[in-house]
Every structure is written in C-alpha cells, then in structure tokens.
Write a structure and sequence with these properties.
Layout lengths: L4 E2 L6 H27 L14 H24 L10 H21 L4 H5 L1 H4 L6 H24 L3 H27 L11 H27 L3 E2 L1 H31 L1 H12 L2 H23 L7 H28 L26 H24 L3 E2 L1 E2 L4
Parallel strand pairs: 2-4
Antiparallel strand pairs: 1-3
C-alpha cells in the first residue's frame, strides 16, 4: 500500500494564531510554576491530607491518553492492518507528546524540583511503584522515538518489532500507574483490578482522542479519509466502553461487599461533589450516552455522532481520573484498625480540597507546551498522509 506523507505549510493566519495561543498558555504555566516554587507548594491549596491536586489528575489522564493512542498505531504496526497505516505516524507522535505532558504535570506538582530529576534514579527501589514508574515513562518515550524513526524510513521489520514492544510497554506504563493507586495505598484505591481498569479507560480515551484528531486534521487540511475507517474505530471504542463499565461495576461491587471498605464505598459513591462527577460526568455523560450513540445503527455510522461520542468519552475519562485520585486522599486512612484516635496534630475526618487558580494555570501551561510541539511537528515533520482509504 503506497502512501505519501506530507507536512503542512503552516503559513495560514489560523495556524499562526494557534501557535501564539499555545505559546501564551505555556508562558502562563511557567510563571505559575515559578511562583509555586518560590513561595512553596502550599499556595496551591494542597496540604498534608491532600498532597496531590489537579496536576496529578492531569498526569494520570495524559499518561492514559498516551497509552491509548498507541492502540491506533498498533493496528498497523502490530496487527498489519494496512488501511490504518496513514494514522500510524500521527498516533505515535501524539502518544509521545502526551507522555511528555504527563511528566511535565508531575514536575510542576513538585515543590522541590531536585526530587523529580535525581531521587527516582539515585535511590531505585523495586518494591516501590513510585521508583519503577519513572523508568517506564522514560523508556516509553525512547521507544516512541525509535518507532517513529522506523515509520519515517519505512523499516518494515523494525516497525513490527518496535511497534510490538511499544504496544506492550504502553500497557506496562499504565498498569504501573494504576498500581500506584491500587496496590494497598488507601482504602478507596486498594483494588487488584485498578491497574486493569486504568488500561481499559486508557484504551477508550486514547481511541476517542485519535478519532477526533483524525477527523479534525483531515478536514482542516482538506485531506480525504474514508468513513469506513472512522466507523470501525467507533465500533472498537464502543467495546472499550463496555470493558470500562464492567471494571467499574466489579470494583465498586467489591468495595461495597467488603465490610472494611463499605464506609469508604458509600463516601465514594454518595459522599459529595465527586459523586456527582462519578454518576453524571463519568457514568451517564462519559460512558452510557456515548455507548448508546455508537451502538445505534444510524448514529453509529455517522461521523459527526461518532466524534461527539468520542468527545464525551474523553470528558468522562477525565472525570474518572479525578474521582480516582482526589476522593481517595480526602477519605481518612485507617492508620490503626479497630482503634479510635482521640488526639492528633493532623486534621481528622474527611479532608477538603479545592482546585486553585495556580493549578489551573499550570495545567493550561502544560497543555500549551504540548500543543505548540504538536503544531511544530505538523509543520516540520511528514506526519499526515495525502489520503486514507479503506481496503475494498
């Protein structure tokens, strides 16, 4: 299958405005991060009971988008579906950018920058997922670079080998991220299914992201893409949504069944604004409505409806990341099972946390930086094909 790839000219008014906006976002994020470093992490509103905030939510979200985006490239590189070769380069490039975004989000969350650059590699501990994951993340970026090089130079054997490695490594990356939460950290985190649930949500959000990006890029650059390719991806997305729903059902049934976790489960499902995000943002808007659209005979074969469903899935998975990270910190840990703490210097009971404006600026800055890198890649790298046709 002979496919020609091109870069865009990048001379239009719209392109220049986009790059200026992304650059502005980046500067705002850098200034906010500089202020946090100078004054201390407390200015964001985080404290000992809620040491993670919006940036960690976004880090987990971006890492999932990265892992899921590689699914589309894997259709060609691993499984040999030649009709999806036109999307392989852009999928790998986006996967690499979102993993960088995840790492940037973690870095901007640090009060002391030396910790993130030095300690994970100097004090390596195989029994700590916090120590293992930086190796997985950096290895993933390196593999994506090699994968992209193999695609650019049409190295078919190397492409298949590296694509298989990248596909498996992506699963390891998000499994490791899920293990940070699921392997005995807090009552609301603890679940052996959580790593697998993370992978399922990553596949759903990554596939949804690529559907939107493919349709948008091909339309804006006046390229032809056959509807059959997008419709098939929509069907795959619908199956991913079913898997996500299954894991969510089993996880929460487990918490409700185990007596020790029942109080935490009630707080998670019915305990505050995060519960609204769970039921409305994740379950209804992010999963049930898109699934109904994609399984419907009419809307499931209409590109606009598929793009809308994909957008809702991306929003729903963002809600899912939020309700995993923050409620687990807000719910009090059981430090002494069977005993009651009568006096403590720390706040007891349910903790409070509100997203601060500085955190929003940092998140905007990370998004702006990868957006600028994405625009640069479209202009200087041959990422987009002239057309994408279904095999008949």
């Amino acid at each position: 299958m002979d496919i020609k790839f091109e870069s865009i000219e990048g001379k239009s008014f719209e392109y220049r405005v986009m790059m200026i906006v992304f650059a502005g976002f980046t500067v705002a994020g850098l200034l906010a991060t500089w202020w946090v470093i100078q004054k201390g992490i407390w200015v964001t509103g985080m404290y000992s009971r809620a040491p993670w905030g919006l940036q960690i939510v976004m880090a987990v979200y971006y890492i999932g988008l990265s892992a899921g985006s590689l699914v589309i490239s894997g259709l060609y590189g691993v499984f040999g579906k030649a009709e999806y070769k036109p999307f392989a380069r852009i999928a790998v490039y986006i996967a690499m950018l979102f993993l960088i975004a995840g790492l940037l989000s973690i870095i901007t969350d640090q009060g002391r920058m030396a910790r993130i650059f030095i300690q994970p590699f100097v004090h390596f501990n195989l029994q700590s997922m916090f120590s293992i994951n930086p190796i997985l993340y950096i290895g993933h970026i390196f593999i994506c670079l090699v994968y992209l090089w193999a695609l650019f130079y049409e190295k078919k054997t190397l492409t298949k080998v590296v694509a298989t490695l990248a596909f498996g490594w992506a699963f390891c990356v998000h499994t490791g991220t899920g293990a940070i939460f699921g392997f005995g950290a807090r009552m609301l985190y603890e679940s052996p299914l959580l790593p697998a649930s993370f992978v399922a949500a990553a596949m759903a959000s990554g596939t949804a992201l690529m559907i939107i990006m493919i349709v948008m890029l091909f339309k804006l650059t006046n390229r032809i893409v056959d509807d059959e390719l997008i419709i098939w991806l929509g069907r795959f997305l619908a199956i991913c949504i079913l898997v996500v729903l299954y894991f969510l059902l089993v996880e929460n049934a487990y918490r409700a069944y185990v007596i020790e976790l029942r109080h935490a489960a009630i707080f998670y499902l019915f305990g505050g604004y995060h519960s609204i995000l769970f039921w409305v943002g994740l379950i209804i808007v992010g999963l049930v409505i898109p699934m109904a659209m994609l399984f419907n005979k009419r809307t499931g074969k209409t590109i606009r409806w598929i793009v809308l469903a994909s957008s809702l899935v991306i929003f729903g998975v963002l809600c899912e990341r939020y309700v995993i990270v923050l409620p687990g910190l807000m719910h009090p840990p059981e430090l002494f099972p069977g005993m009651k703490i009568t006096q403590s210097v720390f706040q007891e009971g349910i903790a409070t946390y509100n997203i601060s404006f500085l955190e929003v600026l940092q998140a905007v800055g990370v998004f702006g930086m990868i957006g600028f890198m994405f625009g640069w890649g479209l202009k200087f790298l041959k990422l987009l094909p002239t057309e994408a046709r279904a095999l008949r």
